Structure formats: C-alpha cells, structure tokens
Automatic annotation (TrEMBL):
Keywords: Aminotransferase, Pyridoxal phosphate, Transferase. This is D-alanine aminotransferase. It holds the Pfam family Aminotran_4. Its EC number is 2.6.1.21. Belongs to the class-IV pyridoxal-phosphate-dependent aminotransferase family. It is an enzyme of class 2 (transferase). CDD domains: D-AAT_like. Homodimer. GO terms for biological process: amino acid biosynthetic process; carboxylic acid biosynthetic process; D-amino acid metabolic process.
Length: 284
C-alpha cells in the first residue's frame, strides 16, 4: 500500500513516526476522512475546508494550499487504485524536543502529514438493516467542532456502548442529545427531522450538509434544534450520519425499538437522495 508521508508518496512500511511527535505525545493534531466512489472523491472541498478551519482554530500552519492537498489526495487514490473507499489524512504539530506543552516555533518545527487510502465498499445491507445504540453521557471537551485526533472521549463512549451490546453511542449532555461517538445524530417526529445545531458541542458533519440539502429537495421539514433523550426514545425514526456510514438507521436504543423497529420511510428517502448526489458527483 502506498501512503503519503509529508510531501512524498511512499510504501506504508517506510513511514517512521518519531516518539516525540506531538501527535503521539499530546494528540496535538487534526484529521479528516473523505470517501471516494467510482474512483472520484465525494464532497472533497467540504472535507478540505473543514481541515483548514481546524488548522486555523488550533494555530497549526499547514504546509500546503487547499489545491495542493486535493491534488495529493487525488494522486493517492489513483496510485492505490481505489474505486470505492476511504481516505484518512492527518497532520500533527511535528516533532519537538524536549516535551513542552507550549506550541513550538513553526519556523523551527515542521508539521507531520500522513494519509492512507483503503477500499471500503458501500454496505447497503447494513444501511437497510440499521444499527443499535446506547445512551451514554457526553463527557468530551468543549471544542467538539474541531476534528481533533484526540478521540479518547469518543472511544470511551463507544466502548461503553459496546459493553451494553450496542453498535453506537448516542451522546447527551444533561439529557440533551448532542451527537454519536463517530457520527451526527438525527430523529424524526411527526414528519419533521430534528438534529443538533452546529456549534462547539458537535462536529459539523459534511454528511449532515448533504442530508440537509437532501431533506430540502425532498420537501421534508428540518429543525436544527436540540432534542432530549426522552424525545428520542419516543421518536418515529432515528438515524446517524457520517462519511463512512452515510445515513444509517438506528432501530433500537438501549434494547427498545425506535418507532417500528425497522428502517423508516424518511431515512429511506434521504438515503436515496444521498445516493443520487453521489452519482451526480462520482458517476454510477
Ligand atoms: N461527529 C463525530 C464525532 C464524528 O467523528 C463524525 C465523523 O467522523 C461525524 C460527526 C460525521 O462527520 P462527517 O459527516 O463529516 O463524516
């Protein structure tokens, strides 16, 4: 497998990550995941924009322009002959010694960039069947809008959900649902879709942008407002969204069925619109 390591494309086993890399020591870095269908990126601009926003929010000076980054990622999927799959890319603030919380001088310490690509076909069967979830307190920090490589809060929540026998963790702060451990969260009640507004408590999902557009095209009303765990438990439908899972029905929460306990008609419609947009951007 070929990967990107700083400005080079190299074999996966040539990459050397220093033990004093600030990503390794402090989780001082940001990342993103973008998906390709039929050998073409879907919503690449939005992912790259979010990456640059995250760099700005963390004062991390990126060593390339948006265009250069897009070119490099495009080369990566071509070289690896990725038809349908995921590209993971991240940057850390670099290798600084001795260990010190203060940001190093960017004139002296260069960031470390890596990217890899993996073939991952669409799992239509899973998108029809749906997944289960468990309600877990959201104990993460207050900069959830930054796609930080520091994911301990997220993985601890997912681990709790798995211990409860569920696929995903639905997170809440004082009873208000924020998002899931690795996706945005949605519910449907009486024909209206609800999802948490953007802000510092959730990651502004690129899939969320696509689904909001899909709902508008389909004439389904959406309210970007907070809903409670109680409201979620009484919802007609629930689903989560991310680049890798698209719009994924949540059919059971803490052992109780959501609505009919099967994929509902609204998420079904959004899945179809999502696929239409994929086909428009990437071909079929
Ligand atoms: N929320 C969290 C915590 C995530 O980790 C992700 C994706 O990884 C999302 C939301 C969805 O973001 P996107 O739709 O851009 O993949």
């Amino acid at each position: 497998m070929k990967v990107i390591w700083n400005d080079k494309i190299v074999d996966r086993n040539e990459v050397k990550i220093d033990m004093e890399d600030r990503g390794y020591q402090f989780a001082d870095g940001i990342y993103d995941v973008v998906r390709a269908y039929n050998g073409k990126f879907f919503t690449l601009d939005e992912h790259v924009d979010r990456f640059f926003r995250g760099a700005c929010q963390t004062d991390l000076e990126l060593p390339f322009s948006k265009e250069e980054l897009k070119e490099r990622l495009t080369t990566l999927i071509k070289i690896n002959q990725i038809d349908t799959g995921n590209v993971y890319f991240q940057i850390t603030r670099g290798i600084a010694s001795p260990r010190n919380h203060t940001y190093p001088d960017p004139e002296v310490v260069a960031p470390v960039f890596t990217a890899s690509a993996t073939v991952v076909p669409r799992d239509q069967e899973k998108m029809n069947r749906g997944i289960t979830a468990s309600i877990i307190p959201d104990t993460r920090w207050l900069h959830c809008d930054i796609k930080s490589i520091s994911l301990l809060g997220n993985i601890m929540a997912k681990h709790e959900a798995h211990k409860n026998g569920a696929d995903e963790a639905v997170l809440h702060r004082d009873g208000a649902v924020t998002e899931c451990s690795s996706s945005n969260m949605w519910m449907v009640k009486d024909g209206t879709i609800y999802t948490h507004p953007d802000g510092n408590l959730i990651l502004p999902g690129v899939t969320k942008i696509v689904l909001l557009r899909a709902a508008e095209k389909a004439g389904i009303p959406v309210k970007e407002e907070t809903f409670t765990v109680e409201q979620l438990k009484n919802a007609d439908e629930a689903f989560s969204s991310s680049t890798t899972i698209e719009a994924m029905p949540i059919i059971e929460i803490d052992g109780c069925p959501v609505g009919s306990g099967k994929k509902g008609p609204i998420v079904e419609k959004l899945q179809q619109y999502y696929l239409n947009e994929v086909e428009e951007q990437c071909g079929s």
